[in-house]
Amino acid sequence: MPLTTRLTPYLTKHRLVGLLLAGLLMLSACQQPNPSIQQTFYVFGTEVTVHIYDTPAPQAQAAIHAIEQHFLTMHQAWHAWEPHGWVYQINQAIAHDQAIAIPADIQTFIQQTQQLSARTQYLFDPGIGGLIALWGFHGRDWQGPPPSQTERQAWLDQRPSIADLYFHEQQLHSHNNQVRLDFGGNLKGLAVQQAWSILEEHQIPSALINLGGDIGSFSLNETDTQFWTIQVRNPKQPNQAIASLTLPPNLALFTSGTYQRYFEWDDQRFSHLLNPNTAEPANSFASASVWHPDPVIADSLATALVIAGPTGWQALVNEFALTHYLLIDQQNQLIISPALTSALRQH
């Protein structure tokens, strides 16, 4: 089985000394950090941990509570298969060739995502929810079998896309009734973006949000010299790291990998990262990690880079002027962006 990796934050007490295999701790260039106030809850199908630093407990707990409640609301509104959510209602309207009025914030994010998807040449495309369902990745259990070639070709013949959506007289319409929205590829990016706003509203000096290994660091001080140390974990040997790097404040770090959600059928592994151009799982890169000040871009491009593979990743890097990325192929070979070289140490 190929060696794959997952970016996982570890707790360190003395600059990569005394490595513990769980948790997070902010490091300071000049001094040891104060202990954090942290809380873990479950949403978006993963564990979310919020760490807050240098803040009185009541103030920190109020901010964490606000983030948790906001995330739970987002989960219901944006979940593609939640009957009471907006995305589910949109998908039902599209399936019945009906227009639907939606909240302004959801319209705005759909339109922003349309622009982002177009820049990736629709390698990242939240309009492929039907394909995700066809492969069985819309639920919690992924067992197979894979869809037949006939079924995949039937989907390709329709090629539903988020590009098919348009707005007229404050209502959403679709040129293609096979479009099914699924924002699993960039919703966590939106969540981090909105959590940063909540932290700012609560005047939290410094914080870190960990959504199942996807990370958003935050500081009110733009000249903050504190940073986090992140270890690149080897999932076949979880007690070891193959690399470490530093993450400064107010950056998002997102990873997509073919090893995160998959099923095996007839001795073959099928990943949840699906290529809209082939209707099949991507299998060239094991993972892609992106550092970016915009969490939505980081989240979306991590997925797009895995799907683009060895022949298409450079075009995406050029299109987005991406400076910080780490790609790992199925042979465990690392492609490290030049700007990241100084911040990353291979073990």
Automatic annotation (TrEMBL):
Residues 1-31 form the signal peptide. Flavin transferase that catalyzes the transfer of the FMN moiety of FAD and its covalent binding to the hydroxyl group of a threonine residue in a target flavoprotein. Belongs to the ApbE family. It catalyses: L-threonyl-[protein] + FAD = FMN-L-threonyl-[protein] + AMP + H(+). Its EC number is 2.7.1.180. GO terms for cellular component: plasma membrane. Magnesium. Can also use manganese. It holds the Pfam family ApbE. Its main location: membrane. Its cofactor is Mg(2+); Mn(2+). Transmembrane segments: none annotated. GO terms for molecular function: metal ion binding; transferase activity. This is FAD:protein FMN transferase. It comes from Thiomicrospira cyclica (strain DSM 14477 / JCM 11371 / ALM1) (Thioalkalimicrobium cyclicum). Mg(2+) binds at residues 185, 299, 303. It is a lipid-anchor. It comes from the Bacteria. It is found in: Cell inner membrane. Gene3D superfamilies: ApbE-like domains. Keywords: Cell inner membrane, Cell membrane, FAD, Flavoprotein, Lipoprotein, Magnesium, Membrane, Metal-binding, Signal, Transferase.
